[in-house]
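Retro notes (design track)

What went well: tokenization of the new backbones is finally stable.
What didn't: we kept losing track of which sequence belonged to which structure.
Fix going forward: every design gets posted as structure first, then sequence, in one message. First example under the new rule, 373 residues:
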């Protein structure tokens, strides 16, 4: 087993958001394949990880440019005989590359998005500077983990990263089986009781962090564009919107109860909603990377309707007909497919779990490590 150091420059313990879970769970399963150590910020609690954590990195934003952290990292590498570094995101890539040259270790950049493209889409003027830096980091690294095949193709076309120097290490789920009918019925009955609904009510679910631009716009799409179309032909249904961080500008969301919208806010156990709902809806029209909530919904055997952008990284061919796609901004098509989705009866099947189960993902990453030795 190789000695691998994961460099994580933000809080992941405890993991609450999709991006935090993506790193924490990948590391947890990867630590069963290789000897994993983690170098991270002081805010992270080492007791929450099943591997050795060095929370020595200062929490201040200047940590990203503090050259004096090189000495701390060099000591960790030497003491633990580290042979490989996995750097989460490219921002601290410059430090990983310094360690590569001075400590003779292999460096992998674990990309969760095309970061420069993400900032370009939200109008940041400096995105092109980040584009050149991102390109430089990935080219100098020994290997790149991409979150989707689309991102991998982007790296090849725009950053000239050869395909043999990259692979897809996707976001995953921690289970490889679907809920039982009894579990689903129990969850559904809990939701019916909680919101005083009749047993004939069809439940549609959207879940996400609502102060994140693409998710907030998705909520606006649901309320202002999709639901007015869907309600014309349907009545016995509710759209439940879960998530924290709703901005003040959307406080009126609570006033849509008479239009079949339930704003649940932050919920303690989202699995009840995933198990109890009939259809997951994902009207996200922009933003890169993989939509973790869609992967989780399908893993819970939910039927799903998504925009094509919202389903990036999720191949409909491995979903056994449970994922219906509409073109971005075609809300009539989206509403029509919501009606179709409630009648889908087949279950998600093994190809989906083969691709998205964390144990399989970690084994794939471990194979890359062995090939780089």
């Amino acid at each position: 087993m190789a000695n691998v150091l994961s460099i994580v420059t933000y809080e992941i313990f405890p993991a609450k958001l999709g991006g935090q879970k993506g790193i924490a769970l990948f590391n947890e399963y990867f630590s069963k394949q290789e000897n994993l150590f983690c170098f991270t910020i002081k805010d992270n609690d080492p007791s929450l990880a099943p591997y050795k954590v060095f929370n020595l990195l200062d929490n201040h934003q200047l940590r990203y440019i503090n050259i004096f952290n090189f000495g701390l990292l060099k000591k960790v590498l030497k003491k633990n005989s580290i042979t490989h570094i996995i750097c989460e995101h490219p921002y601290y890539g410059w430090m990983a590359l310094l360690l590569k040259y001075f400590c003779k270790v292999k460096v992998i950049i674990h990309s969760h998005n095309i970061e420069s493209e993400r900032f370009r889409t939200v109008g940041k003027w400096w995105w092109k500077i980040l584009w050149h830096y991102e390109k430089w980091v990935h080219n100098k690294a020994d290997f790149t983990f991409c979150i989707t095949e689309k991102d991998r193709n982007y790296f090849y076309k725009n950053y000239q990263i050869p395909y043999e120097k990259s692979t897809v290490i996707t976001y995953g789920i921690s289970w490889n089986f679907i809920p039982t009918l009894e579990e689903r019925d129990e969850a559904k009955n809990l939701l019916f009781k909680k919101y005083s609904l009749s047993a004939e009510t069809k439940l549609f679910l959207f879940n996400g962090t609502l102060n994140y631009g693409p998710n907030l716009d998705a909520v606006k799409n649901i309320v202002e564009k999709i639901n007015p179309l869907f309600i014309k032909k349907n009545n016995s249904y509710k759209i439940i919107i879960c998530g924290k961080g709703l901005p003040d500008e959307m406080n009126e969301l609570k006033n849509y109860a008479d239009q079949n919208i339930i704003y649940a806010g932050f919920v303690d156990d989202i699995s009840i909603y995933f198990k109890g709902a009939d259809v997951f809806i994902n009207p996200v029209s922009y933003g890169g990377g993989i939509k973790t909530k869609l992967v989780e919904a399908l893993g819970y055997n939910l039927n799903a309707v998504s925009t094509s952008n919202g389903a990036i990284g999720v191949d409909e061919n491995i979903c056994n007909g449970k994922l219906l796609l509409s073109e971005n901004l075609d809300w009539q098509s989206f509403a029509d497919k919501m009606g179709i989705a409630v009648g889908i009866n087949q279950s998600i099947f093994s190809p989906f779990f083969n691709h998205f189960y964390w144990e399989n993902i970690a084994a794939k990453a471990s194979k890359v490590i062995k090939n780089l030795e």
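Added context from the reviewer: The first strand starts at residue 3 and ends at 8.
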